[in-house]
Write a structure and sequence with these properties.
globular, alpha/beta, 6 helices, seven-stranded mixed beta sheet, 193 residues
């Protein structure tokens, strides 16, 4: 089973890898990652690796979660849309950094398990739905930030439409794992950068 020392070691490793935002590091420290991984992998919860979860999906490695979260440049008043709830770990981290998190998952089994984890941890500012993430969540739009945890060839137009002016989306883009890049898309009065 993971120990407090494992968690501290992970935070130190994230600092060494360049994560500087203390709010992001504190949020990661507050979320018990071992609750978001399969029991068989609990001993590996604080290693900086992706781990398998149900439905053939993975929980991202902590560095990726920290890096993407840091690049969102969050404010405690922000309303966030997450595409790909998975185990709920990323949303749980975000819940400590912003006003509200809306998260879309395509697998009901993952969505229900994530909701149970949020309830167990007393996280009340995360709302989940089952749906097609590429369509976003129009009734809750516009969003201050959107984080996409699954790669696409190009940013889905529906998600760009759901960004407020002055908002940012972080998404992996590319055709294969070898060609993917993490991209920040900012929506301005003049268009997209």
């Amino acid at each position: 089973m993971a120990s407090a020392q494992d968690q501290i070691g992970l935070i130190m490793q994230l600092r060494r890898r360049g994560i500087r935002d203390n709010n992001v590091l504190r949020a990661i420290e507050r979320v018990p990652r071992e609750l978001f991984v399969d029991e068989a992998f609990a001993d590996h919860a604080y290693q900086d690796i992706a781990l398998p979860i149900d439905c053939g999906q993975t929980i991202s490695q902590p560095y990726v979660v920290a890096f993407m979260t840091e690049k969102l440049d969050l404010d405690e008043r922000h309303k966030i849309l997450e595409i790909g709830t998975g185990s709920g770990y990323q949303a749980a981290v975000l819940s400590h950094l912003c006003r509200r998190v809306y998260t879309v998952e395509r697998w009901r089994e993952l969505q229900k398990a994530a909701e149970r984890r949020f309830a167990k941890l007393g996280i009340t500012n995360v709302t989940t739905i089952i749906g097609d993430g590429w369509l976003g969540w129009p009734p809750q739009a516009p969003f201050d930030r959107i984080i996409v945890t699954a790669a696409a060839r190009e940013a889905p137009p529906a998600l760009i439409e759901q960004l407020k002016v002055g908002a940012r989306m972080i998404t992996p883009l590319g055709e294969t794992r070898d060609t993917q890049m993490l991209v920040a898309i900012d929506k301005t009065e003049a268009g997209l950068t």
